[in-house]
Amino acid sequence: MSSTAAGWLQAGLLVLALALAYRPLGDYMAQIFTTGRHWRVEQGIYRLIGVDADADQRWPTYLRSLLAFSVVSVLFLYGFQRLQAHLLLSLGFPGVKADQAFNTAASFVTNTNWQSYSGESTMGHLVQMAGLAVQNFGSAAVGIVVVIALIRGFTRSRTDRVGNFWVDLVRAVFRLLVPIAAVFAVVLIAGGAVDNFSAGHAVTTLAGGHQAITGGPVASQEAIKELGTNGGGFYNANSAHPFENPNPFTNLVEIFLLLVISFALPRTFGRMVGDARQGYAVVAVMAILWVASVAGISFFESGHHSAAALAAGSAYEGKEVRLGIPASTLFTASTTLTSTGAINNAHDSLSPFGGGIAMLNMMLGEIAPGGTGSGLYGILILAVITVFVAGLMVGRTPEYLSKKLRAPEIKLASLYILTTPALVLIGTGLAIALPGEQAAIANPGPHGLSEVLYAFTSASNNNGSAFAGLSVNTVWYNSALGVVMLLSRFVPMIFVLGLAGSLASQRAVPASAGTLPTHRPLFIGMLLGVVLIVVALTYFPAQALGPIAEGLH
Amino acid sequence: MSDVAFIALTIAVFAVMALVVRGVEHMVGQMASSRLADSSSGEQHSAHPGAGSSTGPGSGVAGGDVVGVAALPDGQVVR
Question: How far is CA A480 from CA A111, A240, A431, A447, A455, in A?
């Protein structure tokens, strides 16, 4: 089978699997967050942490619970890494150095999973399992519960209650993430991914060199790494490592996992607001952007004009031959359009325009379909902006899902839109301006700028993938990127939950002749336009100096 | 930098976010209060459409009282 045919087949199977999962998974998630019944194990947890599971919280209380959970998680994970040398299964590794431990703790708690370390030579098995993997579940669940609270803002009236954070969190973990991750961990093991407690084997290579091959609980971490759109690899090579992602079958399973929850959440949204068409409109926008991105990156990686690429017929530098170009570009588009950040090829080796699209995917705010929960609340914020803009243009009443969009709602949506670009551009500017940090850039010219821009774009959008070519394991980069990850994750959440509270406090207004229908193709087109215009106006100058300048050179 | 510095940095970042929460709470609270004021007196409100009326027998709220955003303490059942 030709590489092109294999690529079409993989893409077709992926789309089919996602389409089949849309309704059942979306409905199941809606049921999880609307049922009044608690499982017995959940009741035990609530009693343990002293939560009244039947009591809803005001939105500020919900938000403070989320922030308290997160700050404790950061401090716990920081301490866990620092004390690694004294823990079981440390494999003889010392404690992680302070700045790197801070960066890693911030990274995993924020669902970014940016890694300034090599897993196999830095982290023992206990830290990987009980520290990092636990946060893979927790951080993914936090994203989901925020969008559920926002949806409740649309569905509830005359209240400031948006749910109970602890109940939502426990349900997201135990009813959704753990069961699916457990099943797919077994699937990945069956596909050849390793899962053991091996401390490593010393082997002699064919060339006579010596190499230590580290094993570990890889497959079990791999499943939630993709399902929770986390992306932090057990190994430095991430999903390009044959122990994490042995073959095209596991590659396809991993892409499916990193997309499935985020693509099904619009169904949950439609179900909870009582109009499935609203979910279809949102998922249509997500799907159009995803298809365009896959097509764009595949085009540039299949026809790059450098000498090596011309000789090989496509841009193979930095890609796994066992996976091929289509499986690499499918993975790259999917991982940068979600907040996953796992990689199965070296993004620094992408063609300039291919790398530029990967960067653009993150700059879009990762909404197609985005991270677990964060993708949907990101696109709903843009939908709010779209309804408002449409109202200004044609005199329609700015209403979305029976809620009027007034000054506070638009202020909160605007603050949400501005937060991430500010962190990306200020962070990149500082890194370029500080003389001591310029030494970290491995390449001169536009590509060097792309490396720094990519790093701050990845951190600020909680993606976590790296362009490489940038020495980020320094005190400044570890600290700066750590702070950026925390702010870019939680400050937007504050605005989202504020918006949820503001919407919930309103009385639902019946649709009138002046209400813009938000389930029709016109709205889908308008939402796409707003997405592209907001991003283009914000990031085009930086993109022009980086990947576009390099590509046109 | 020492452990104390990074722990302090973490707490400082979350403290800044707590201030942002206060600001947003103030902005949203003002709007919610004005919406309550806009509602006609004597109107009865349910905390949640699916929760039934929050006024009436057994609710501890007299019929005719306005039960709104600011009046409900944390812990009110609305699911």
Answer: 17, 28, 9, 21, 11
Domains: count for chain B: 2
Place of tokens 């590794």: A93
Whether this model's pTM surpasses 0.95: no
Q: Are residues B15 and B47 in the same domain?
A: no
Contact A160 B45 (CB under 8 A): no
pLDDT in tens, B33-48: 766 566 544 444 434 4
> Are the beta carbons of B21 and A75 separated by less than 8 Å?
no
For residue B47, give its domain range.
41-79
H/E element, A435: helix A435-438
Query: Do B48 and B77 belong to one domain?
Result: yes
Note the Cα A6 to chain centre separation in Å: 27
Q: Residue A75 is nearest to which of B7, B16, B27, comparing CB atoms?
A: B7
Query: Are A123 and A96 contacting, i.e. CB atoms less than 8 angstroms apart?
Result: yes
Same domain, B49 and B69: yes
Q: Domain limits of chain A?
A: 11-552
With an 8 Å Cβ cutoff, are A55 and B74 in contact? yes
Residue of B28, B65, B69, B77 best to disrupt the A interface, most CBs of A under 10 A: B28
Residues of B in contact with A156 (CB under 8 A): 48-49, 78
Same-domain status, B30 and B50: no
pLDDT along chain A (553 residues), means of 10: 85 97 98 96 96 96 98 98 96 96 98 96 95 97 98 95 97 98 98 92 91 92 97 96 96 98 98 97 98 96 79 84 92 96 94 95 95 97 96 85 94 97 97 89 92 97 93 96 98 98 94 90 96 89 95 89
